Amino acid sequence: MKNIKVNIDRTKPTSEEINAGKDFDKLLGMLPATATVSAGAAAKKSFWKSGWGITSLAAATVAVATGVVLLFNASGSGNNTAGNNGSNGNNNTVDNVRQPSANSVQTPGAFIAPPLAGVDVPFDTYRVKSEKGGKLDPSSGSHIIIPAGAFVDNAGKPVKGDVEVRYRELRDPVDFFVSGIPMHYDSAGTRYHFESAGMVEIAAFKDGKVVYLKPDKKVEIQLASDNSSTAFNLYKLDTNARNWSYLGKDQVTQEQNNNPTQLAEQKIAAKKQETDAVIKTLETERDTKIDAVVKSTVLPDKPLEPKKSDKTKNRFNVLFDTKEFPEMANFKDVVFEVDESQKPFDRGLYGIKWEDVQLLKGTKENTYIVSLKKGIRIEKIDVYPVLAGKNYDEAMKKFNSQMDSYNTALATRKKAEEQLQQQYSKAISEQRAVYQKYQDAIRAEFQTQSVSSQTLRVFQVASFGVYNCDSPMNYPTGGVVNALFTDEQGKQLTCHSNVYLVEKGRDALFTYYKNPETTFRFNPGSKNLIWTVSNGQLYTLMPEQFAGMPVSGEKDIVLKKVEQEFKTPDDMRRYFGI
Amino acid sequence: MEVVSKYHATRDDMEQEQVLVEAAKADPARFRPLYDKYYERIFMYVYQRMDDKDMAHDVVSQVFLKAITSLPKYEYKGVPFASWLYRIAKSEVYQVFRKEQAHRTVNIETAGLGEMMEGMEEDRYAGYAPLLADAVAELEEDDLQLIEMRFFEKRAFKEIGEILDITENNAKVKVYRILERLKKILINKKKTA
Fold first, then answer.
1. Smallest Cα–Cα separation from A449: which of A252, A254, A227?
2. Is the ipTM beyond the 0.85 threshold?
3. pTM of the prediction?
């Protein structure tokens, strides 16, 4: 073939370069003149750079433009579009039914695969009357505004009646990980990772079947966020392309609240609930560990202190098996004196020829009973063992020695228990202090304000799915090692679901795809944490172990098996301190 | 070698997309979500075949203009909407070449060359890699398209078939035969080198 130019490994255009020519409104402006427009390539000035083509018709068309668009206008966000025929007989078309176990939601396309069985970010489930729309108010402080007549079926026909809307928010590395939603973005041949200011997933169902948004309807999402930076872009997860689609920028606004005290108390109550849950977990952990210490500490049997015989007391000679009474194994020529503290002894019993004599344990520690039997007559006498002379001295000597050993072992165990008690008391106190500090700070903050505000990241969507307010970034820099990930036995881990790096304090999840990973990059200045799943089991390298990582060369990175079972993302957050 | 296309569409995806297509037929302004979704992909397809970004943007605009104006004639035939857009893009790109407003460019990735070598299943060709780029440039346009889509754009045979309006199997056979021809070209080049 002639006239071909060959480029080898040409630099890929950046996302910005690609989107520089993207202008749908301008394209619409071209429409009436399409027939007269020659090939854009022939134009002296680049079509996409030219300013012509935006006609009044286009402007009118733009006004009704639809699609997955951003509408930087939060007006009307406070309007509750609820009508009077609530689905539950109340005065709201929105019925907020919490369904924490709604993990069965399948995002279209199966490449979103939660890596930990049974752990995922739950969906909130709402019922919305299709004809009236509604405003959903998740507990996070976000709002979702659904216009009337927004839902259509797969044939494009309007859906009537109640529609089930499922919604969830994902905010930190644990949420991103357990959900299985990829946090990387491929643009122009380059892979970036996302730092997120908040991600949502929204889907709708009618009688169990997926419903869609009518093309001229948009749902407004006002995502409550702690991040008010405008440096973040908005992306939608394209399950078809298995990549995120860049949509532009969201709008960052502040929602005013005229009742700051109420808002403050709501925040404090939420924090208390969170703190109580953490404390309960700590207490359970503490008790479990103390039980383990008690079970693992082998204490010698507590020795029985010998008593010196008193010739004035009544007594019995009873033969017994030291296997049944090992505490008296050291006693030689032991006799049993009658304990008359509760009941006087009838010396007439000595005159009877008993058929059977037995030594039994008493109801209290180190008490014994002599049981005498003749026919149907049974006499039970409280007794205690005594020794005389040299036998007593030898027994006492052994007792003192055994008691020392016993006390030493007991002291060791108690010390371990006390250490655990102190460790957990400290952790629990810290949790309470954090809560108290939070409570004081929130009250102080809200007392000085007549109104308070919450950052909202506002965008409109014309289709359901996963939306993410993100900032793309490259892998961390500063350290790069050829890493081989192994378990504690030195066996290479089969990391089918990748190796993840978390920098504490950043809402990002860096993913590494191979083991060994020849370019495992990280920032030595960050508090780094690694985890991976191998054969369904979670393995980790905690920040204190990561701290000694060399910044170059080859490194076998030993990941520790996580024994704790996680049932919720909060369990995992607590474990990793995220 | 297994090429996994990221462009595979499920039936659900296609049906969901069809809702948007039908809406856009009634009102061109409703084409926006499809434009947003496919802009980058169409751009990359066009730019893969030429050297000038501005020109590529112009062509992409023409592709979408043509798509919107032709949309009433579009009928869903069980293949992704993207395939229809790629066909328009292919036509627009060649229109530009015919008018000699741009030169045909082939952008080769070294990694793609390696996969081609692997596809030839002949170790002894490994040393020929430097000559392979020249050999690719000598292919006829129809053959170049197939090689480009398969090895430099990493498309699945199913998708290549949908874009070129041939069967998946036919796409496989054609690529196999082109690789065989490339082997011969390479051997000749090696002899004369």
1. A254
2. no
3. 0.47
